[in-house]
Amino acid sequence: EYVRDIAKRASADVYKGDFDSALTKSRTLLEETFCYVIEQADAQPEGKGNIGKLFEQVRNLYSMHAGADVDNKRNGLGA
Asked: 59 phi and psi, to 5 degrees?
């Protein structure tokens, strides 16, 4: 429920034009989502407050490793 509330409040901030607040809430939303999926994998979040570290932990826990050429293929630059 907490995550849903943050998302609703961030959307309301965008609608009101309060982009600074919307960005702050969006960052919190990402952090809380990463922590939640880490905990669902029976692990403890490492580097709480550091979205980069949390994202890396999620990638490792869920084997979300893309090849180096994935972005190039999406952009029509790959072979």
From this structure: -60, -45
CA 13 to chain centre: 19
CA distance 22 to 13: 5
Picking from 25, 31, 19, the residue whose alpha carbon sits closest to that of residue 58 is 31
Instruction: Provide the H-helix boundaries in the chain.
Output: 2-16, 19-40, 51-61, 70-74
Q: What 8-state DSSP symbol labels residue 47?
A: S
Report the SS3 class of residue 66: coil
Cα 17–Cα 15–Cα 48 angle in degrees, nearest 5: 80
Q: What is the pTM of this model?
A: 0.74
pLDDT at 71 > cutoff 60: no
φ/ψ of 55, rounded to 5, equals -60, -40
